[in-house]
Amino acid sequence: MRHLLLRTASPLWRRPLFTLARISTATCEPTNQRFSVGPDGTVNVDLDFVEEALGMPAADGFGWARFEFGQVIGPNQRYTIARKLGWGMHSSTWLALDNMYISLASKYVAVKALTGHITGLLDKGMAVWEPDALRLLNAGRRTSPHCLQLLDEFEIQGVGADGRHHCLVTPVYGGDVRALHAANMPLPIQLSKRILLHLLRGIAYAHSRTIVHTDLKHDNIFYNTTMTTTEIEKWLVHDPPRRHPPEMSKDGIVHSAVSQPPPMISIEEALTRTYVLADFGSGKLATELWTRPALLISLPTIACGRGRTVTTPSLRAPEVYLGGEWDEKVDIWSFGCLVFEIITCGRLFRYQTNENLGLDEIEHILLQMICLTGEDFRAEQLTVCPLAAEYFNADCALKQDPEILDWPFEKRIERWSTIVPPAGVTPMADFMRRCLRLDPMKRPSAEELLKDPWFEGVK
């Protein structure tokens, strides 16, 4: 659910934040407005949106697509919108019938419509990389089944002040690993290792095309669907597309579509699926990054056109935290963290303060990195990281001088003995240790990791 605040005395639409407020379904009148008066007498209007904030201008950072069920879009009226599959901060994804399908197993495709705000940045050549990345990944005869496939792309005019929408057409995927985890926690280890192997293949292929993903996480790992055209059409009849009750927006009353992803699959089905690296919206060319310092978490995101963050905090590599140069090895660090997270459902590193030790979030996560890897940061690395002096002394020790505990990966893994058998602890820890080297120069490539014996027998 999205929450926005409007100050009527000086209209300023803020970026959406999550809220727990509920929207009533007992009336046809919008109930998502809340009025309050500030200390200065200014009337504030709070708007709660159950999904994406429709009817909010692209010029203010919004502009989600407002498609109608049955609407025909694309060149030569090629795609007919059937339902909404889901949405994110910068796009919404829709199931569509391909009216000109030729060789696909299914007549249906997924259409990812970027918001008017993001499309505007793309049209200006500003910091929007996903379309370029997908073109590069899908160029030529040699592609990978473990990276998102781009079938088509086009741009259309949106409604009102929504701006234009750049649309990316891909196959329909069955879901993502986060949803699979939520429905089946924990996953059998043989399934987790299959997911990780397929993900690593996707990373290796992306790196071979000079693409650094920079945003590896459960949400960005899709799996394929085996649903045929007939099965999809039966699903649409059994569970027809729906809309939420009316909501008030800056552009008047809107009716957002309910997100209705494909039905969840069983563990047995999941063991046969192909897993795919998706969402290259944060990706970058490796050749552009070898001389680029990492930007800090405190900077605005790429969507604002003023900077970028790199990776979810708990999966972020040390060189990024320290403001140093970074390259494709940030993906290897994130992958090493995901090995633990996908198998155990736990968090390897926690991005939070430690009041007992007097450490802020970054100091605390640097301490965790030292304790878990059993390594020390070397002077050669710290001297080229602009922010290292904020956290480390001249002797490469943390300034706050916390106690360095002996807490290797094996101890963390052993806590999950119901998932990882005793014989599997050391091989898993050894593999993680290869990925999670503090010095990025010492991390192996994705291609090298694919040859690790830990993946022996995994398909």
Automatic annotation (TrEMBL):
<dbReference type="GO" id="GO:0000245">
    <property type="term" value="P:spliceosomal complex assembly"/>
</dbReference>
<dbReference type="InterPro" id="IPR051334">
    <property type="entry name" value="SRPK"/>
</dbReference>
<keyword id="KW-0547">Nucleotide-binding</keyword>
<keyword id="KW-0723">Serine/threonine-protein kinase</keyword>
<keyword id="KW-0808">Transferase</keyword>
<dbReference type="InterPro" id="IPR008271">
    <property type="entry name" value="Ser/Thr_kinase_AS"/>
</dbReference>
<dbReference type="GO" id="GO:0004674">
    <property type="term" value="F:protein serine/threonine kinase activity"/>
</dbReference>
<dbReference type="GO" id="GO:0005737">
    <property type="term" value="C:cytoplasm"/>
</dbReference>
<dbReference type="Pfam" id="PF00069">
    <property type="entry name" value="Pkinase"/>
</dbReference>
<dbReference type="InterPro" id="IPR000719">
    <property type="entry name" value="Prot_kinase_dom"/>
</dbReference>
<dbReference type="InterPro" id="IPR017441">
    <property type="entry name" value="Protein_kinase_ATP_BS"/>
</dbReference>
<dbReference type="GO" id="GO:0050684">
    <property type="term" value="P:regulation of mRNA processing"/>
</dbReference>
<dbReference type="GO" id="GO:0005524">
    <property type="term" value="F:ATP binding"/>
</dbReference>
<dbReference type="GO" id="GO:0005634">
    <property type="term" value="C:nucleus"/>
</dbReference>
<protein>
    <recommendedName>
        <fullName>non-specific serine/threonine protein kinase</fullName>
        <ecNumber>2.7.11.1</ecNumber>
    </recommendedName>
</protein>
<feature type="domain" description="Protein kinase">
    <location>
        <begin position="79"/>
        <end position="455"/>
    </location>
</feature>
<keyword id="KW-0067">ATP-binding</keyword>
<comment type="similarity">
    <text>Belongs to the protein kinase superfamily.</text>
</comment>
<keyword id="KW-0418">Kinase</keyword>
<feature type="binding site">
    <location>
        <position position="112"/>
    </location>
    <ligand>
        <name>ATP</name>
    </ligand>
</feature>
<dbReference type="InterPro" id="IPR011009">
    <property type="entry name" value="Kinase-like_dom_sf"/>
</dbReference>
